[in-house]
Predict the structure of t-SNARE coiled-coil homology domain-containing protein.
Amino acid sequence: MSSDFEGYEQDFAVLTAEITSKIARVPRLPPDEKKQMVGHVEKQLEEAKELLEQMDLEVREIPPQSRGMYSNRMRSYKQEMGKLETDFKRSRIAYSDEVRNELLGDDGNSSENQRAHLLDNTERLERSSRRLEAGYQIAVETEQIGQEMLENLSHDREKIQRARERLRETDANLGKSSRVLTGMLRRESTNGEGAEREGDTESEAGSRLGAVSTE
């Protein structure tokens, strides 16, 4: 199940990287190419949303004890998707403004440069934000792994304690059995000695009777 999720995850990473690159290029393309690029980005955004839906379904199938790490990653991907859509809207606004300026006969070079500068700054901020989110994600995953290790150690300790209790019970049962066997052996020994004494007494009585009859 996790292998399917990781496959979707890789596809999502490749696709979002392509979308980010195309969004950054939109404001600097000629009008015809911009229109075509906008259409490509719209299709890829839909594909990215479908991948997120598939990943979400995979996470729901993962056992609850292992689901936390994947849920955190899903939240990060959804945030990234929201930022891509915001950047695309900004890029489309810049594209629409340029089309309007061309129709009105205004080249809008100064405005275009400002928008390009703003988009570059926005892209740098987004990269910094993604790096921070990646660091946070690593910290969350590390904490999750630590919690799972503590839970496993707790289970192992309980197993060891139960094994010790069973050993104590076994030792106690062996002690009882040993005492019972010792008692049985003592009784057997006592009964044997009594039988020997009775045999000796009978032999002596027989000897005496023999002597009397001889006389």
Confidence is low (pLDDT under 50) at residues 102-108. The CA atoms of residues 5 and 58 lie 6 Å apart. Residues 2-150 form a domain with the Methane Monooxygenase Hydroxylase; Chain G, domain 1 fold (CATH 1.20.58.400). Helices lie at 2-25, 31-61, 64-104, 109-214.
